[in-house]
Amino acid sequence: MGTAQRKMIPREHGAYAELLFPIVTVFLGGSPTTSTWLLAVGAIACFLANEPANEPLLVLVGQRGNRTKREESDRAKRALLLFFLVAIGAGVAGLLLATTAVQYAVSVPLLLGAGLMMLAVQGLERSMLGEGLAAATLSSIAIPLGLSAGLGLRATLAVVLIWLVTSLLGTAEVRLTIARTKAKTDEEFARVRFKRALLVLVCLAIIAVGVIAPYGSRVGLWILAAAVPVALVVLAMAALRPTARRLRLMGWSLVAANLCSLIAVVITLKIIQDFKAVEPTLPFPMF
């Protein structure tokens, strides 16, 4: 793109999904307060300012080339300043209205985000460590938001785990597909086959946990069943072994699976809230 066309926003669309799915889950499955809304705005602003594929940050550190840095550094600085002001304003306001538990919980995504920004500055955002840390950071945003929306600690952590696992599964399958395409030697092919076998075992374990979870005594663990759609899609991809030319189809398939997981999580959270509302009126515990 030319200078006039370049947008100072992240260009990695997968990162938007990793950010928005946890946030949407909390808002649809919980009871968001003013603090929840403000913290969500602050989280999105932090994402735009610090996400590893962020244009302003990468332009300023020279990751988009020296010419781009010279021509667009002023715009990048203005964009970063705007994002940070919104993040600080909304974040501080949300923390002032939040409970003590939520205030402490905010430190988790902040610390992870700081580490993620350091990797981005070093150009390691595309590494396995960078993508894994990005998934952990973006899914951890649900911790303060979930507590603020009244989901409870167990349900909140289950939501975080769901989106962390689904993000890592999708990332692993895409990386394996690309690695298989680039493999040249028998050793490289063997390494890809070994990693794919591990991914299949992980998917089978997640499916087993998801199937068993609804039969447990803890209602909050029912949320774990929501990871099954993504695990099934990744398992099918691992078995079919599509080429890199099918990456777009793989992406849309993962999006559809994540939407199914989102619906399952929200429905389960609503069921949990109904149980909590009804149980105090009964002469015996339901679970």
Q: What does the largest sheet look like?
A: none
Rg measurement, Å? 21 Å
State the end-to-end distance: 58 Å
The number of distinct helices, counting runs of at least 4 residues, comes to 12
What percentage of amino acids are in beta strands? under 5%
Cα shape: flat
Quaternary organisation: single chain
Number of domains: 2
CATH fold name of the largest domain? Tetracycline Repressor, domain 2
CATH classification, class level of the largest domain: Mainly Alpha
Describe the structure.
The protein is mainly α. It contains twelve helices and no strands. The protein has helices at residues 13-29, 34-50, 55-60, 66-97, 100-105, 107-121, 128-140, 142-148, 153-182, 186-212, 228-240, 247-278. The N and C termini lie far apart (58 Å). The model is unreliable at 1-10 (pLDDT under 50).
